[in-house]
Amino acid sequence: MKNPDETEIIKIFQGSFGKKRHFQADDIEIVKIGQGRFVVKSDMLVQSTDVPQGMKLDQIARKSIVSCVSDLACKGIRPRFATIALGIPHGFTKKETSQLAKGFQKAAKEFGFKIIGGDTNQAREIIIEVSMFGAANKKIPSRSGAKTRDIIITSGPFGYASSGLKIVLQGYKSDSSSIKKFKDAVFRPRPRLDFGLEAAKYFSSSMDSSDGLSITLDDMSRQSKKRFVITNLPTTSQVTKFALQNKSSLHRLVFCGGEEYEIVSTVHPEDLSKVRKIAKKTGTPIYEIGHVKPGNGTIFSENGKTSKIKRCGWTHLRS
């Protein structure tokens, strides 16, 4: 009997907890308390599956924070507070603990929230669970709101993190002018918080892309019950050159990488100019990559030819 992967495990728990409408698959959870709405995001980092070789302890701490910040950013929610639960291996030194703490402190300052508590325990490896909280005072875009004729946009290029991981883990080669940017995408990812806070009100649907662009587009297409037509690869000449140098598939680098922390969203054509202005103001290099049509599935269209974009990326217990 096949063991369940991350997606299937989530569905099992959702089915056990009650009515489906309380557990819609999305980047955040929204709870109504009194007259207000409370936003919660939880994410876990496990050293053996989430930390590449060479990542420093303060970078590990920051990465665990970035995962939650990015999910809030794609919904236009400002992070306010966080709790952190730590699993620490036996023999972890005071210096190492201080490096982790410093990473959390710097990340809290960088993204403007307060760490208000947490828990610690012994574990076989570093495990970090972050729960982040915010308030929803406006309409929040879901994954399922894409409309026919909407434009599909990303908040930045894809392929840098996947290229960086190939350099770090597999010894792939890169030009000296590009290698720092590839490695920074791995060791210091940049969630698009400023852009998301201002632009989310114009999103008909949105999702964080950290599991991979293909998975993100597929989830949004399925939940919106629409066809997503991709006509433009959201990438750069640096990634294209890296693919050629290493005889790698450019499409796989762009669609299947994961760990990108970009916002993928759909925008009504009438609102596109407003989103472009916000992108310019916040220094966000948005890419207009396609459009939404009636139908289902995610396809790539180029020079009159179309092909189905296969679902690929990162899924725990499968990848």
Automatic annotation (TrEMBL):
Its job: Catalyzes the ATP-dependent phosphorylation of thiamine-monophosphate (TMP) to form thiamine-pyrophosphate (TPP), the active form of vitamin B1.
The keyword S-adenosyl-L-methionine belongs to this UniProt entry's keyword annotation: no
Protein name per the record: Thiamine-monophosphate kinase
Top EC group: transferase
SUPFAM superfamilies given in the database record: PurM C-terminal domain-like, PurM N-terminal domain-like
Gene for this chain: thiL
Molecular function (Gene Ontology), one example: ATP binding
Annotated residues for binding of Mg(2+) 4: 27, 71
